[in-house]
């Protein structure tokens, strides 16, 4: 390892693989290392044997579940917004050519003990059982305003300055009730809590527009979400392939990767197996940087294997359900994600459902119950709690650029926000995704 690299990337989680690919495309010489023998890190997709080995060591998977390699079970399950930032990154890097996607069948929100389809347009709002007749009219007016809003055309502002007006004020101008605000903020704008209400309205309006734009990204889709065939583990491997095309080097199964620092306290290389590779800076997940990240929360997830779709979802093979915090007396939302053999992530006739949330008590398993109660009978269930870590500094001083953990949400927007923010810190410039042509067909 006598060569010197621009960057050494530690860990093959999705965030690290995206960064590796972006830096390679930008012309940097990248070495990517991982202590594990497989791609994905804590965001890996596991076969049935790997799943049992991780959560039920010493036990064999039941033969009734079929072939172990027919399963690709995500540890961090997330859908992709069809018009969102991850899609733009996939197109920008051309990684899209390595992947096949399939649309998600259903998007639902929980209200007063029942799940309802999420209305995402003025016409859907008129049909939704979520609202009374008069509330539907008010919601329709709100959606029309949002859909027509154009930052470049002041005529669409209707006298409102969304950079100064709070989202709470904008909702109030349309006289929307608390339950309507709840599903718009959490199931459309995809906020994890209610802090957005007292912030400027413009970012929320953009998020609602993104939901709507994603919904109509492909003809005939029922939700704004897509998901790769064979699971999310395909994403890190595809970005690894991209990096290799641009000259990046990958080394798996490298034990004891240790960051080396110069006399100024700056990362200048990584030591493994008695050899040191030199570099200008190091990127990686928090586990490779002892003392340079802190635990800011915990995420609880339940992985459930079932032989049926989630009740009330019109037999959907794949679905997201958002349980807004207020509906179950919590400070943070609960998310339900389900996919099936239709996405090639389970054996024939099997469904994999996940329930995830930010931990608020000393009994995380109980906090998942509102989501678990929606699933119907479960054949096998695994619960794991993961630390959610954040770096202590931005990396500009010590040349250690550290990713955040994966939150409880079942969509990728916050994940990609972290990646793009890291890219800006590393390169000093933002990745321009606004002028991409999104006319490529990416759905399988």
From TrEMBL:
GO BP terms in the entry: protein transport; small GTPase-mediated signal transduction; vesicle-mediated transport
GO cellular component, one term: cytoplasm
Cited PANTHER family: RAB GDP DISSOCIATION INHIBITOR, RAB GDP-DISSOCIATION INHIBITOR
Natural source organism: Chloropicon primus
Name of this protein: Guanosine nucleotide diphosphate dissociation inhibitor
The family this protein is said to belong to: Belongs to the Rab GDI family.
SUPFAM superfamilies reported for this sequence: FAD-linked reductases, C-terminal domain, FAD/NAD(P)-binding domain
Gene3D superfamilies assigned to the protein according to its UniProt record, in alphabetical order: FAD/NAD(P)-binding domain, Guanine Nucleotide Dissociation Inhibitor, domain 1, Guanine Nucleotide Dissociation Inhibitor, domain 2
GO molecular function, one term: Rab GDP-dissociation inhibitor activity
Pfam family name, one: GDI
């Amino acid at each position: 390892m006598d060569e010197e690299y621009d960057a050494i990337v530690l860990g093959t989680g999705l965030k690290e693989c995206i960064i590796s690919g972006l830096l390679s495309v930008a012309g940097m010489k990248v070495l990517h290392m991982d202590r594990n023998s497989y791609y994905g890190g804590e965001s890996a997709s596991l076969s049935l044997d790997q799943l049992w080995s991780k959560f039920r060591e010493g036990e064999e998977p039941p033969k009734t579940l079929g072939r172990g390699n027919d399963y690709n079970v995500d540890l961090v399950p997330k859908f992709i917004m069809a018009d969102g930032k991850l899609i733009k990154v996939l197109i920008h890097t051309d990684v899209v050519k390595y992947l096949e996607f399939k649309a998600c069948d259903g998007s639902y929100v929980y209200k007063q003990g029942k799940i309802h389809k999420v209305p995402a347009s003025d016409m859907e709002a008129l049909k939704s059982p979520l609202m009374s007749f008069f509330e539907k009219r008010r919601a329709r007016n709100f959606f029309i305003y949002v859909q027509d809003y154009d930052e470049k055309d002041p005529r669409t502002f209707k006298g409102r300055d969304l950079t100064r007006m709070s989202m709470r004020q904008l909702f109030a101008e349309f006289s929307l009730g608390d339950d309507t605000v709840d599903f718009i903020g959490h199931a459309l704008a995809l906020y994890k809590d209610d802090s957005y209400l007292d912030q400027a309205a413009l970012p929320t309006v953009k998020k609602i527009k993104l939901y709507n734009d994603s919904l109509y990204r492909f003809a005939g889709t029922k939700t704004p979400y897509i998901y790769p065939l064979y699971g999310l583990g395909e994403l890190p491997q595809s970005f690894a392939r991209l990096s290799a095309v641009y000259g990046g080097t990958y080394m798996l199964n490298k034990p004891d990767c240790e960051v080396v620092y110069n006399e100024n306290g700056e990362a200048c290389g990584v030591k493994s197996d008695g050899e040191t590779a030199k570099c200008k800076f190091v990127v990686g997940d928090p586990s490779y940087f002892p003392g340079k990240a802190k635990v800011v929360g915990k995420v609880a997830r339940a992985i459930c294997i079932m032989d049926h779709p989630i009740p009330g979802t019109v037999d959907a093979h794949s679905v997201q359900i958002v349980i807004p915090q207020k509906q179950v007396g919590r400070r943070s939302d609960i998310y339900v994600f389900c996919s099936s053999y239709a996405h090639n992530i389970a054996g024939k006739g099997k469904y994999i459902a996940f329930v995830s949330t930010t931990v608020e008590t000393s009994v995380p398993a109980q906090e998942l119950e509102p989501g678990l109660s929606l699933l119907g009978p479960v054949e096998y269930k695994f619960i794991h709690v993961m630390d959610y870590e954040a770096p202590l500094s931005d990396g500009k001083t010590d040349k250690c650029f550290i990713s955040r953990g994966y939150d409880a949400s079942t969509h990728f927007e916050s994940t990609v926000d972290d990646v793009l923010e890291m890219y800006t810190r590393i390169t000093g410039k933002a990745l321009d995704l606004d002028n991409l042509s999104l006319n490529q067909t990416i759905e399988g």
